[in-house]
Specification:
Elements (H helix, E strand, L loop, with lengths): L29 H23 L4 H11 L8 E4 L5 H8 L7 E5 L2 H10 L3 E4 L12 E7 L8 H11 E12 L5 H23 L2 H16 L3 H10 L2 E9 L3 E8 L1
Parallel strand pairs: 1-2, 1-4, 2-3, 4-5
Antiparallel strand pairs: 5-7, 6-7
Helix pairs in contact: 1-4, 1-7, 2-3, 5-8, 6-7
Length: 255
């Protein structure tokens, strides 16, 4: 599946959030910081994901994939697969391991993924997918939109590797619109969980990842910008479904 291919250069760059210089000194250091942070926190990632979602994350991922139209006969790509939580949900729904590929820039996260399941795993970026045109029926990305460098290029690559009428599912956490909701999430994700992680694991890296995780949520571009970027990349039937206006499911179809 890995091959020479024609990557699409986006004409209008759209960054998911401002440079978070409280975590890295300069924008050019962002990608290295993010990859290193995930490498060092990989062994705690699944546990942290479960705590963030109060233990409902596994069922939610399966349900979201079903709502987006994933079926066992599809060839699927899990972008920013990490430790494989979304990939496992796809396998649970009947996707054959041979029809599922995961890609992620973090070797640490991929190592954790590889320990748990036997699917093809590739180190790489969503903005530069090392796959042929029209190679997949379904592309999914779970909670990693905030960690890419250019949404326009990411969505152009999604469009390139999908065959028509392929589908995209993008899962994200959206900043609450209400003051009360924002204050509660800022405390829970930005303060309480990092402190709990430091006390429970004694590992600073995992706590730092949670702090960074919240900062990217708080600073992320709004849903309207994400929907517009999908449309600009050539997708149709672009829509966002949400739970409590926080858990967002973006779905788009290649014409």
């Amino acid at each position: 599946m890995i091959s020479e291919h024609n990557q699409i250069e986006s004409t209008t760059k759209l960054v998911p959030h401002r440079a978070l210089t409280e975590f890295y000194p300069a924008p050019a250091q962002r990608a290295g910081f993010v990859s290193d942070l995930f490498d060092r926190a990989a062994r705690d990632y699944d546990r942290m994901s479960g705590v963030i979602a109060f233990g409902t994350d596994r069922q939610y991922r399966r349900s979201a994939l079903q709502r987006a139209g994933l079926s066992p006969v599809m060839r699927a790509l899990d972008v920013a697969t990490g430790t494989g939580l979304v990939a496992q949900a796809a396998l649970d729904l009947g996707i054959a391991p041979a029809n599922l590929i995961g890609i992620d820039p973090s070797l640490g996260m991929l190592a954790e993924n590889r320990r748990r399941r036997s699917i093809e795993l590739v180190q790489g970026l969503g903005e530069r997918l090392p796959f042929q045109d029209s190679a997949f029926d379904f592309v999914v990305m779970g909670y990693a939109l905030r960690h890419v460098e250019d949404l326009a290029k990411l969505f152009a690559e999604f469009h390139r590797v999908l065959r028509s009428p392929g589908r995209v599912l993008l899962l994200e956490i959206t900043r609450p619109s209400s003051r009360v909701g924002l204050a509660l999430m800022r405390f829970y994700l930005g303060k309480f969980l990092p402190l709990l992680t430091r006390l429970g694991t004694r590992r600073h890296d995992s706590a730092r990842l949670l702090e960074y995780y919240w900062a990217t949520i708080e600073e992320c571009v709004p849903p309207a910008a994400i929907l517009s970027s999908f449309a600009a990349a050539g997708f149709s039937a672009v829509q966002r479904k949400s739970s409590a206006n926080i858990l967002s499911e973006y779905v788009a179809v290649k014409k």
